[in-house]
Amino acid sequence: MSTDKTKRAIQHLKELSYLPFTAEQIEFIYDSASFKQRIIELIRQAESRIYITALYWQNDEAGQQILNEIYCAKQKKPALDVKILVDWHRAQRNLLGAEKTKTNSDWYNDERLKNEDLKFDSMFFGVPVNTREVFGVLHIKGFVFDNTVLYSGASINNVYLNQLNKYRYDRYHLINNSELADSLVNFIQHHLLAENVVLPLDVTNRPKTKEIRQSIRTFRKNLATKGQYKLQNTVSFKEELSISPLFGLGNSRNILNRTIKDLFRIVEKNLVICTPYFNFPRSLQLEIQSLLKKGKQIEIIVGDKVANDFYIPPSQPFKIAGALPYLYEHNLRLFSQKFEQYIKNGQLMVRTWKDGENSYHLKGIWVDDTYILLTGNNLNPRAWWLDAENGLLICDPKRELLAQFHKELDYIRRHTQILKHYSEVEDINQYPLPVQKLLKKFARLKADKLVKMIL
């Protein structure tokens, strides 16, 4: 049975569309400060187009600085085509737990009004992936500057861009390939901007979500069934260095989800996984279990609870969202306990990342030094079922990128500790009292599975 699954996985990977590229066309960037600098450089160099998709663009110092660069570029080159797509819901609310003030979309509008003498068209657009944020957001990644793709799971704000000497660690890759850039832009134009529910955010009058609810449902259905990247001048699987852009929404026809499972199924020697929120979908847990039984090596790099972006120190007032890092850590303890024998014999290596007050946001998969997946997908049930996700699958049969693969992993591992036994992970009874009460209440009401599904 497992042999049949492997054959089907290989066949599916062969059916994907791949673009050829060279090792010289990709640059691995290893820290958030350099990522920010490259964004600024690419904005200043852009001649024809800037297309950005991210979960959000925050009204803070880094957000203002990058937006100023965008307006400056537009002022110098009025014909520059700028489209910035963020999640519709996220843009129109305040940060969790923050006081109600102007939202990011209000700020986008204010900034456009400041530059109204330039008569620019709208630049910010909101994408409503579902009628409520909790049931799905825009989690598509990728910045396009002319023919260059800058791909990262990061959004635009202070911590992602290391603005105030505090950072949220992600992955960053720059790929100079005109056909890949065209593919990402064409997807945005035909599957997002062409829809009647993807509306400008930098305007005064925006419709209420309830007014477009039925249109959002139709949009989600169409995006899930028809949304996919189109490529020209493709090459065959596993013949040369190549890359395949992937999209996924929902679980029935989700090419990205299927590709992730296929990557797990073709592992010959080793698999490396990065995720910030330890909450694998059941299907991936089963694949991991199968690989371990076959004797494969697996390394999982996950953020320590204090490196989670929802973490609240015990010295500060407790908020419900602050329980999430503990919930993920509890998942890690149960997982490590279940697979204790593999941790003990060294076949399963679990690393937890922590660097002071900084946070961890890495996602991705490495297989046998031959395949690497760049993605914003958190490899959790929410990404699997609810959010609109994408990724870039790199196939490197001649291992031309091996040195950069290893260098990236070495950087990621720098602030990690290897888990030697599940007991090194705190138990619920060691958590702050408010966290204990909430997690035990979830379990008592059997609500923990629902919480894990949507968060």
From TrEMBL:
MF term (GO), any: CDP-diacylglycerol-serine O-phosphatidyltransferase activity
EC number(s) given by UniProt: 2.7.8.8
Domain PLD phosphodiesterase: residue ranges: 356-383
Pfam families assigned: PLDc_2
Top-rank taxon, per record: Bacteria
Catalytic class of the enzyme: transferase
Keyword Cell membrane: no
CDD domains (alphabetical): PLDc_PSS_G_neg_1 (cd09134), PLDc_PSS_G_neg_2 (cd09136)
Keyword annotations of the record: Lipid biosynthesis, Lipid metabolism, Phospholipid biosynthesis, Phospholipid metabolism, Repeat, Transferase
Family: Belongs to the CDP-alcohol phosphatidyltransferase class-II family.
Family annotation (PANTHER family): CDP-DIACYLGLYCEROL--GLYCEROL-3-PHOSPHATE 3-PHOSPHATIDYLTRANSFERASE, MITOCHONDRIAL (PTHR12586:SF1), CDP-DIACYLGLYCEROL--SERINE O-PHOSPHATIDYLTRANSFERASE (PTHR12586)
Name recorded for this polypeptide: CDP-diacylglycerol--serine O-phosphatidyltransferase
Origin species: Seminibacterium arietis
Gene name as annotated: pssA
